[in-house]
Specification:
Layout (H helix, E strand, L loop, with lengths): L1 E6 L7 H15 L3 E6 H4 L21 H11 L4 H12 L2 E7 L7 H10 L21 E7 L16 H4 L1 H9 L4 E2 L3 E3 L7 H16 L6 E3 L23 E3 L8
Helix pairs in contact: 1-8
């Protein structure tokens, strides 16, 4: 399997970086090919702009998605975005590894998505969800945060973590066709003991070793909608091997 790890943490000695390193070691130990993009170390440009196109379809007005399509067709996409897109298309499994910032991803990772999930390649028209451009590939999110697990139950102070991550899990990864595995979470990591951190890393390695046995999240299927995207009243298959994103327990 070809694994593409995108890591987004500003501190090379962080626990998030340790999770990235453990993932590389475990995937390689299992015989997989691994490529890593360390966005902060790369000083990746996170700002989507007209500079992403060396030749414009419309030099007077930028519709970013349309310019992405034009750039791919004419090989005029900015080289750094093109290099990341090539890695994305190469991989069988995408791993996004990052700390939770303000209930979301770090800005550098959001910018990577904006610039690399190129319209006309990863999505476009009705090429989304199970018809997306990256269908057939898997995606796994691994995060760290300062909060404790009990703070992220559905009735807790913050609500369910899976709801917080829905824009990423569904609105981004599933939207472009990935089958999305349940995220792995390192809870409360700035405040726990070294022994506890060691156990989190061990649990992360176990998740990687048994990834093929893990369920994927239930996401919309265009087969459940008509041509105008009105819902068709059908029952989802009970043996789909998927897990409802709104009904998760512990992630770890």
């Amino acid at each position: 399997m070809k694994v593409f790890i995108v890591h987004a943490h500003p501190e090379p000695q962080s626990f998030s970086a340790a999770m990235k390193g453990a993932a590389v070691e475990e995937f390689e130990r299992l015989g997989h090919q691994v490529v890593v993009s360390d966005l902060y170390a790369m000083q990746f440009n996170a700002v989507a702009s007209i500079a992403d196109f060396t030749n414009r379809a419309n030099p007077d007005y930028c519709v970013y998605a349309l310019e992405q399509r034009h750039a791919v067709q004419n090989n005029t996409l900015a080289p750094d975005a093109k290099a990341e897109l090539d890695k994305l298309l190469w991989c069988d499994l995408l791993v996004l590894n990052f700390p939770i910032f303000w209930f979301s991803t770090p800005a550098i990772l959001k910018g990577w998505i904006d610039r690399v999930f190129v319209s006309g390649v990863t999505y476009g028209g009705k090429r989304f969800y199970d018809r997306g451009g990256l269908r057939g590939k898997g995606a796994l999110v691994s995060v760290t945060l300062g909060g404790q697990e009990h703070m992220f139950d559905p009735e807790s102070v913050h609500g369910a973590l899976e709801s917080m991550l829905k824009p990423l899990l569904q609105g981004t990864l599933a939207y472009v066709g990935f089958k999305v595995y349940r995220p792995f979470v390192g809870w409360h990591v700035p405040y726990i003991s070294n022994e506890a951190r060691t156990e989190v890393l061990a649990a992360w390695r176990r998740r990687i070793r048994h990834l093929d046995e893990q369920p994927t999240l239930v996401m919309p299927s265009l087969n459940d909608f008509d041509d105008a995207l009105h819902p068709i009243k059908t029952e989802r298959k009970a043996d789909s091997g998927e897990t409802n994103i709104a009904a998760q327990g512990s992630f770890v």
